[in-house]
Amino acid sequence: MYVGRFVVIGPTVGAYRVSSRSFPNRRALDRDGTITVGPTEDAPETDNPYISYNCVQVTDNGVVLGNGSHVDPIAEKLELGYPARDALAEPLLALDFEKDDYDTPRIAGIVGLDDDATTTGGDPSAVIGTVRRDALLVEEVTEPTLVATYERDSPELFSLAADDAAGAAREVYDHEFEHAVCAAGVAVTDDGVETAIVNE
After folding, report:
1. The whole model's pTM is what?
2. Domain count, the chain
């Protein structure tokens, strides 16, 4: 099954995978904790605005993962102290779905929220969201949850066994969904934030 790009978001571990039929010549690069998706050196030239973007941004208030330019404003709002749900929802609503041939949804999530950043408090949690042509969905989650750009475009539970960044990146890269290109994983621990990438 081809589901396009997808995120898996849990309270302390998350992952993002690029799956692509149209633009497979991309890779993930770690830039001091910010993970960027961009074209490889042999990629054909394109003016497509959705090819390059930050897919992981680490903040003091949580780690943002997503499939486009909305990742940066979500991270900025988290840094400013917005509640996680609002930090996620406002940029998704403002930027809306991608204006490409497929009306591709924007997907994102925030991992490693502390008690004050969530809507309910208590144990660490996470927030996941998507904006599609027909809906804006934002949910607080307490176990791994997936949302993808196609087929699985509403949040649903996902079995993620990994509890570290490298394991999460590898697990989503190797998942049976078709056309894997690259993946990123994050984990929030007592010692800080781990990130990892898989390019193959």
Report:
1. 0.94
2. 1
